[in-house]
Amino acid sequence: MTAMATGTGTRAAGPSFLQTFVSRHGSMMPTFAAVAILLVLFVGAEIFLRGDFITPRNISALLLDNAYLLVLAVGMTFVILTGGIDLSVGSVMAFSGILGARLLAEGTPAFVAVPAMLLGGAAIGLMIGILVQYFNVQPFIASLAGLFLGRGLAYVVSLSSIKVEEPGILWLQSTRIRLGDWYITPTGLIALGAVAIAAFVLHLTRFGRTIYAIGGSEQSARLMGLRTARAKVMAYVISGLCGGLAGLVLTAYSGAGYPRNGIGTELDAIAAVVIGGTILTGGRGYVIGSMIGVFVYGTIKTIISFMGAEQSWMQIIVGALLLLFIVVQRAIVARSEGRR
């Protein structure tokens, strides 16, 4: 009788495929949401603009125009995964850009100027990492100090714009690698290469696993024997290095270095990373998601430009998306804490 009752409908229904998928991949839901929003933006813009938006030229330009922001978002992902924040990246980008432009204008070879740009950014990141890890300074305050330092150093190098005439630097932006009507520039390849390297490091190396462990619980990671101190400092060094690399990309893009470049760009990078699904409290997120977040940000900016609307709508829309994704993140964190 018991067996018959079980077979005739008293058996509890198992979880649906959707419930199982969400349960196993809960941390990826914000990233999937970002992909969905990106698709909705594409389809909506295509309908509203009557077939003039989704073209090879516009899609190719999306990476071209946002390559520097994508590089910044890669570095920011490392820092946010540890539970930190880096407000210095915009200033680091400006400093490295104007430094490289000044060196090139004085006749310094590109193979010397470019490493100097990268090392300058990494040095500021190292300073912030040391303040956070060894002096227990809050990441917000430490990176704010880095912001002022980077911007001040940029003004020390030059108060005005410096044009870049080095063919090797300009080649990074002027070259078009074409496949039919599609194209990509070396700056785009640099940005995609940064994403690929970061994804490999975060998911397939011990260092990457340590970064995630720090964001999950730094004390537990330390008790497991992981080198948390070195990894946390390196996260800020990587962010600073990406700031220097973004300075190179932006200098090639604009053809000049300018000490006021990147004001507020650190907020754009943080927004892109959060929209891409990285949890602000650390421990969860994907660099691929950060790339999607950059594309969402760039697509909104392009749509607003097509419509001829005021740029204030850019901040309004991104602010609304941030609120949405923070609520989603809190729901995911609350759900996971409820399972413990």
UniProtKB/TrEMBL annotation:
**Protein's name according to its UniProt entry:** Sugar ABC transporter permease YjfF
Which keywords accompany this UniProt record? Cell membrane, Membrane, Transmembrane, Transmembrane helix
Chief location bin: membrane
Presence of keyword Cytoplasm: no
Q: Which residues cross the membrane?
A: 28-49, 69-98, 110-132, 139-162, 182-202, 233-256, 262-280, 287-307, 313-333
Task: Give the organism, scientific name.
Answer: Demequina litoralis
- What is the membrane topology here? Multi-pass membrane protein
- InterPro entries annotated for this entry? ABC_transp_permease (IPR001851)
Is Membrane one of the keywords? yes
